[in-house]
Amino acid sequence: MRPGNRSRTSDWVAALRALYSEAPPDLAIFDDAVALRLLPPGLGALVRGAARAPFGTRLAHRLIGSATRGLSYGVPLRTAAIDDAVTRAAESGVRQLVVLGAGLDARAWRMPSLREVTVFELDHPDTQGFKREGTRELPPLAQEVRFCSIDFERQTIPEVLGQHAFDPSARSVWVWEGVTMYLTAEAIDATLDAVAELSKAGSTLAMTYLPREYASPWLRTVSEVGAMWIGEALRFQEDPHEIAARLKQRSFEVEQDDSATEWAERWPPREARRVRPFERLTVARRAGG
Ligand SMILES: C[S@@+](CC[C@H](N)C(=O)[O-])C[C@H]1O[C@@H](n2cnc3c(N)ncnc32)[C@H](O)[C@@H]1O
Q1: What is the position in ligand 1's atom list of the atom closest to the CA of 79?
Q2: Which member of 39, 58, 88, 270 lies 3.0 to 4.6 Å from 43 by CB, making a disulfide possible if both were Cys?
């Protein structure tokens, strides 16, 4: 991310989540009224316009889906797939959720399953400042939200979480959604080391990543040039067995590794068949204990 800039990709993914909150019942994925409130005014107006027009969200779904060759469908679907993993963890008694690179993630404000969970939101101060403003008047559904500013390139996660009373002796669930593709392999390893250091046995990590051949060579070039242009270069791609090996080195066993094709099973078949498997989600559990 360029210094002094708020993340633009986090705005766009939040806009997609807002769109799918307003969608007709067969496409609606979650109720994320908060996403719409947090959007910058221009994007918010576009989503509200689509929601008010007859068939507007369905049309936007198809138009954005075709323009991005199916990429946009994966965003709300991955969020819903991660929600399932977070809810399973909360139902098993986990009381700490750490969101790495939180952006405009609204889980703390929209997921009733977090009512007994403290949410630690880690993000760059430039992105987080905007979110703190937007959520000032919004009561969370989570028990508590702790905003933890961090520049992953300059500060360590244990140092920052230590300042916010994170308890490493209790189990936790970690969400790393839509971030790894922008990092170097060294930054990925440093983050996984930190997660492993702070995770008691039985903790869960849900992370998304791009596999090496996530799209056709032509679409990969377009995506990589576009990402570089907005200052968020795509740097990291790896295949499932490589991600599993990185996790295993840190005592995390993969329990789930799937893509948008599987996440789309919650949509009717006529919509699900348009979805392309760009990004993947790994859910892994810390062994031992
Ligand atoms: C694509 S957004 C994903 C946001 C969110 N997880 C979601 O899915 O909506 C990437 C996030 O990583 C954060 N980020 C990028 N570089 C960072 C850095 N050096 N330190 C802290 N956060 C960073 C951005 O601020 C942004 O919120």
Answers
A1: 8
A2: 39
Residue 57: its pLDDT value, please? 93
- In this prediction the pTM is 0.93
Q: In 188-218, which positions are buried (b, 16+ CB within 10 angstroms) versus exposed (e)?
A: bebbbebbbebbbebbbbbbbbbbeebbeee
Task: List the residue whose alpha carbon is closest to atom 14 of ligand 1.
Answer: 101
The C-alpha atoms of residue 10 and residue 30 are separated, in whole angstroms, by: 18
- Tell which atom from ligand 1 comes closest to the C-alpha of 152: 20
Q: Which domains does the chain have, with CATH numbers?
A: 70-286 (3.40.50.150)
Report d(CA 178, CA 76) in Å as an integer.
11
Ligand 1, closest atom to CA 100?
Answer: 6
Which residues, judged by CB distance below 6 Å to any ligand atom, belong to the binding site of ligand 1? Answer: 1, 7, 9-10, 13-14, 101-105, 123-124, 127, 150-153, 177-179, 182
